Amino acid sequence: MARGSAPRSVFLPSEVSSGIKAGVSYLERRNPVIKLAAVVLVALAVTFLFDPVTPLLIFLLTLVVGRVWGGLAVRAQLRSLGIFLVAGVAILLANILFNKENAVSRVVVSLGPLRVTTAALWAAGSLWFRLLCFALLSLVFVRTTSPQRLVLSLIHQLHLSYKAAYGTMVGYRMLPLLQSDYLTIRAAQRVRGIGEKTGLWHLWSRTRRYALPLLTGAVRRAGRVAVAMDARAFGAFPERTYRERIVVDRGDLWFLLVAIVATALIIVASWRLGLARFTIT
Amino acid sequence: MPVLQVQGLSFAYASRLKPALVDVGFGVVPGETVLVLGPSGSGKSTLTLCLDGLIPHLIEGEYAGRVTVAGLVVQNTPVHLLAQRVGLVFQDPDSQFCTLTVEDEVAFGLENLCVEPRRIDEEVDRALELVGLRAYRYRRLSDLSGGEKQRVALASVLAMGPPLLVLDEPSANLDPRATTELFELLRSLREEHGHTLLIIEHKLDEVIDWVDSVLVLGSDGRLLYRGDPATAFYEMADTLEQAGVWRPQTSELVIALREAGWAVPGRPLGVGETVAALHATPGLFRQLNLLVRRHGGPADVPAADSPPADVPTVVAVSVATPSPETPSPETPSPETPLLDVCDLSFRYPGGEVAVDGVSFSLQAGSFVALAGANGAGKTTLASLISGVLTPPAGTVWLQGRDVSRLSPGELGAQVGHVFQNPEHQFVTETVRGELIYSLSPGAGRRRNPHLPPEQRELVDAWLEKLGLLALAEANPFSLSHGQKRRLSVAAMLIRRQALLILDEPTLGQDERQVAHLMALMQGFQAAGGTVLMITHDMRLVAEYADRLLVLKRGRLVHDGSPAEFLSRPALVEEAGLRVPVLSTVWTALLGRLDAGIIVLSAVFPHTVRAFAAALDRRAVPALSGEGG
Predict the structure, then answer these.
(1) pTM value?
(2) Which of A112, A260, B158, B566 shows its CA 20 to 30 Å from the CA of B382?
(3) CATH of domain B354-560
(4) What is the complex's ipTM, to 2 decimals?
(5) Each residue of A212-239: pLDDT tens digit?
(6) Closest chain A residue to B122 measured between Cα atoms?
(7) Which of B88, B112, B427 is opposite residue A234, by nearest beta carbon?
(8) Domain B4-250 = CATH 3.30.420.110
(9) Among residues A47, A48, A80, A77, which one has the least CA distance to residue A60?
(10) B445-458 tens-digit pLDDT
(11) What is the DSSP string of B520-576?
């Protein structure tokens, strides 16, 4: 079966629905719930790997998939992971200083009193690459999935109540508005001579001062959206129709299968080479 | 058969609250356009919710009476059936969308009605066609302008096919051009597709030409008037004024001219009607002719056909209504100006240039308006002056000191900035606390519990002036919208800063509230304060400002008197603003005279009072003697 509601994709060459342009990447065209399942399965597998090499291989594979099938430039992917790259340094440092196997493990480099052991490198690398894996998998998922399609897919594939799902979408719509409200309120109060002092007491009083206008505004806006939705018959029937139905096609299932097989192959290969470890010790 | 019939409708949100509507009854026939007026809090929005059944089906309260829409009794009909007969459009476009793209938003209602997907596609196209946004189908809502968003909101209810459209201040957040376009669209919907319209609107001059009838709600939620517009604005003018309801400028002009002794015939409301009525007024044209000749009409000034751009040099004469003299930026002033902006440009990180090479200076004691289309950079410019944003060094000078080098405290002592939403600026928990905070931020704390007696008296005096003495201990958030606005302005005024910047202070306020607010500002100006007010409302500009700055895409395109700007329709248009109705009437009158508009720019009547005064027989006895 063709993806989406077939006639649309045929007749609308330039752009298709949900803000995704035609000629969108392979990953963007995948069913969001299936894609989510693939991401969760791979992440789950990574959870049980306690060596640096296997997660690194999976990380590199994700990077390549993101580039080739997701259209995400490698540099853009890495830049978004900036904070996790920095975290690696901290993890490494902590392990060099505190890893309990440092005393019994082989020293790779000695930097004065600091003895960098294989155990420290191994533990830090395993932790760091796993972290990077989770981050990159989430990143590729978010960058290739339109929130609207995700919500529809949750309704269509996971049979989530459409009322709850649309509530989530409205919330998502509100986030940028809330952020701009926050910035405006901060500026508005600063003009009245409120200083940005640090310290616990000021943090508390500032939070209180921002919270009231922010919440009042959000509640009012939410109320208005609710009225506007009700006025357009939202919730009139237990079911509703959809202009576009998100379907699972054979391509999606192939994608899931390939993702599982590829991950499994990497793990098995790495195990056969004696690199993979499945326990901490 | 009426498409809408309301009988004895009363509603209170809770039994202990003041009822929002009391015994309201009226009928609307198919194809009729009804303008709904009323002061703030008169139940206009509540009425709209009663029409499509959200009251009483989803919003509960004390409900009495009977509302019938297209033969269906609202109380007994489920909301989804009513949604196909009544379409509601609200004022804030961002608070009525629940999806991310245009097509999803327009399809939303149809999907709720379980319409078959194939038909939804056709209906979405049809609805978008109706509002002229066929090409926008795949756009993201967040990329649209305010005017486009309102059209999408309209399309999203039109898709469900309701014959009756109810619009609750649809233009409140739009700039003048988008407002005109929206009303043109509504007018075509009525004329080409026979829609019945019920419009709540403050911007009367935009719609008065074509509405069929007027419905006025009083502040107590009772029906004050229901009938034809001419009777409302001529026979009931005093009642409406007392109720705090906006009236069209055309009827105000005719009434003022009658008071000045002219026998203007009829009860004109539209521009065409008004011009015709003035034309038919005995003696008025002769007076106008004399006025024109006196200021050098086409006979005396051959330059009359030169382009309007040369205006300021032509006339130095000023008679009945002298236009306020603006200090030209080139003339060196004896003192340092209060504010000097020199070649100020500003670009948001990663964004476009928001302010582009702007230079002007403000003298102390002036009332300056800052106008321009949405996105022209008005708020950015204001923020750069008040220190919300930091200007580049050497571009903004306050009393001879570089603003970029002043500490927030030093700048705050001199410049106040009233934001659009009053709630954003409340920092204490009582009304009194707001005023006290402005005088002494530390007051009330343990170390500094008491306010000096003279400050306490000042606070009490302000509370009385605001009419908030009884609410002094109330939370500012519990006030009405008008009260919040006045409090937020007063909390700035009480600091007696040299310059006060206001960002669209009159948005959504009724006539009485605006008058009250403007009186506060004029008092501030009289005491030597300087006001810089951002607004779209050219009527307000004409009546209060003695100088007008106009921004267009970040550039300053006008710096001079409001009258001078309004007498140049091409420039007004180009800046995305609209010529107020009075200017149109004046231009049309002179057009009939064959006089050069240019010549009269010095006496350009930009307010009703100025218009009537320009033609006052008694004020210019020589003229009328000569003519008679």
Answers:
(1) 0.84
(2) B566
(3) 3.40.50.300
(4) 0.84
(5) 999 999 999 999 999 999 999 999 999 9
(6) A243
(7) B112
(8) no
(9) A77
(10) 555 557 788 888 99
(11) HHHHHHHTT-EEEEE-S-HHHHHHH-SEEEEEETTEEEEEE-HHHHHT-HHHHHHTT
